Amino acid sequence: MERLLEQLTDRQRELLAAVAKGQTSSKDLAREIGIAPRTIDNQLSNAAKVLGVSDRRAAAKRYIELLEKSHEVSHVTSLTLAAEASNSSSEGAGATRKTSSALRKMISPPPLSGGEHSLRKDEVTTRILRVAFLGMLSLIALVMFVLAFLKTFENLQ
Q1: How many domains does the chain have?
Q2: Is residue 154 in some structural domain?
Q3: At what angle do helices 10-20 and 76-87 cross, to 10 degrees?
Q4: What is the value of pTM for the model shown?
Q5: Are residues 60 and 10 in the same domain?
Q6: Quick one: 14 and 84 in the same domain?
Q7: Among the four 5, 20, 42, 82, which has the fewest Cβ within 10 Å?
Q8: How far apart are CA 8 and CA 4, in angstroms?
Q9: Other Cβ atoms within 10 Å of 44 Cβ, number
Q10: Which pLDDT tens digit goes with each residue over 94-141?
Q11: Which domain holds residue 42?
Q12: For residues 11 and 43, is the Cβ–Cβ distance under 8 A?
């Protein structure tokens, strides 16, 4: 058990602790820590391999279990509570956060300026089509508003 913890780097421990607290987005973690999202993915993937699990959430859960068993109590209680809160499917702030995150993702524009990003070509195309669709809906709504406005003044005369 302790050998597994020793095989994790400090960065992997830091990222596993963040995932256990509910921060699962590579982009958010990258902004917070100051490294590339792809590096976050690689670090968490390597940590999952070391811990013998398949994904980052399972790795974070395993990390907490190993911390508890190794009697490193400093972060364990808060991490366990945070992990349980993020894994529960209760309503409230967690559900609101998931909804707002999904909405934000749905209406987010495609990457601009030709810079490097982590999106595949199909994801970029999907985002461009979403923006075009939302633009078209906005234009239709504006035309309907103008027509209704003109019809109101037409009835006044």
Answers
A1: 2
A2: yes
A3: 50
A4: 0.47
A5: yes
A6: yes
A7: 42
A8: 7
A9: 24
A10: 555 556 666 666 666 656 656 666 667 887 788 888 889 989 999 999
A11: 1-89
A12: yes
